[in-house]
Amino acid sequence: MGGLLRTTSRSESENSFFGCFLHPGMNLTEFFLAFESALESQRQKKDRLDHESQSTYPPLKTSLAIEKHAGETYTRSIFFYFQIELYEACVSCHVSSLSEKDDVKFYSIKDKSMTHNVFEVVHYTTTDFAECNCKNFQRIGILCRHILLALNAEDVNEIPESFVMRRWTKYEAHKPAALSYNDLAGTDSADAAKAKLNMLYMQFNLTMKTHGSNIEYVSELLDMLQEFNKRHDAQTTQLSKHAMFERLIGCSKPSSIEVQTPKQSRNKGCGKRMKSTKERMTKLASKPLRKCNFCKQMVRHDIQNCPERKLA
Predict the structure, then answer these.
(1) Of 20, 93, 111, 298, which has the most beta carbons under 10 Å away?
(2) HSE-CB for 66 with a 13 A CA cutoff
(3) CA torsion sign, 277 to 280 to 285 to 291?
(4) Quick check: 113 and 88 in contact, CB under 8 A?
(5) Cα angle: 20, vertex 24, 30; to 5 degrees
(6) What is the pLDDT of residues 63-87, one digit of tens each?
(7) Phi and psi at residue 200, to the nearest 5°
(8) Average pLDDT of the chain?
(9) Vertex 114: Cα angle to 109 and 116 (nearest 5)
């Protein structure tokens, strides 16, 4: 739904997410550790949503084959958006007129759910491409209800390949976002090591998604990992906390610390400003009079702050 986001909406969303993990009093090391925790939280949420898309099937509202194909193609959230458009195409829309010229069909579709309720759909039957003047597919990347009604009239059972945006599909998210291992093979740089770790994580994740339901394959993989750990446990050493920080930052701890953590600045709106004497007297004069139990007069103080009691 990136086409619906505004610049401020994206910034506010990021600030809201990272605000759960970061605070202004962190030093550089704590910031990196908290940032890694935030990314790990995103990865865990992504894996959970991927598991739901792979292992479960969404409920269908119609008996159309194109809806079933959308459930097999799209991610869960995008499918629900597509399902709303398909349901509205069946309930709120109907074809008011149809004309054909040179393998091109022109539909006039009336939509009762919108103010501008007449839309024009052009369907090129040779290339199986269609366009609508509502421009919903150009803005969001999901077919509108008007094109879906035209495709249903043509007995199209699957979403045409030209209308399937790869970023909305289930398997697009599993592709590597960084450089692959083949691009950095033969090098010993930090980027190559990071690419190997990314590839290892992706291969393990893909293996569990593909063969996780087969107990024999899972047992074989578990035995291989346990054997690998037994062979290499003797060669690994437990890093101390300082050593972990030095490896994370990329430099050793200095003998003398010259740059200290800066004090947190006072943000706008925090604290109280100094009130002038005129403001204090005006606020005091606005208070109602009450009877003091010590001096028995209608004044603006009580028995605890009575000046006559202090003199007594």
Answers:
(1) 93
(2) 26
(3) negative
(4) yes
(5) 75
(6) 899 999 998 888 888 999 999 999 9
(7) -65, -45
(8) 80
(9) 70
**Backbone φ, ψ for residue 291 (5° rounding):** -85, 125
In the block, which residue shows the tokens 């930090």? 190
HEC letters along the chain: CHHHCCHHHHHHHHHHHHCCCCCCCCCHHHHHHHHHHHHHHHHHHHHHHHHHHHHCCCCCCCCCHHHHHHHHHECHHHHHHHHHHHHHHHHCEEEEEEEEECCEEEEEEEECCCCCCEEEEEEECCCCEEEECCCHHHHHCCCCHHHHHHHHHCCCCCCCHHHCCHHHECCHHHCCCCCCCHHHCCCCCHHHHHHHHHHHHHHHHHHHHHHCCCHHHHHHHHHHHHHHHHHHCCCCCCCCHHHHHHHHHCCCCCCCCCCCCCCCCCCCCCCCCCCCHHHHHHHHHCCCCEECCCCCCEECCCCCCCHHHHHC
| Amino acid at position 115, single letter | T
Measured CA to CA in angstroms, residue 273 lies from 116, 266, 270 at distances of 55, 13, 9
Cα 127 from chain centroid (whole Å): 35
**In angstroms, how far apart are the furthest CA atoms of the chain?**
110
Rounded to a whole number of angstroms, the CA Rg of the chain reads 33
Structure tokens at 173: 């998210």
Q: What is the mean pLDDT of residues 254-260?
A: 80
The length of the chain, given as a count of residues = 312
Which of 196, 198, 217, 199 lies closest to 208, judged by CA? 217
Q: What does the H/E/C string look like for 28-86?
A: HHHHHHHHHHHHHHHHHHHHHHHHHHHHCCCCCCCCCHHHHHHHHHECHHHHHHHHHHH
Least confident stretch, 125-134, 229-238, 269-278: 229-238
> What is the rounded distance in angstroms from the CA atom of residue 275 to the CA atom of residue 16?
35
Sign of CA dihedral 153, 154, 158, 161: negative
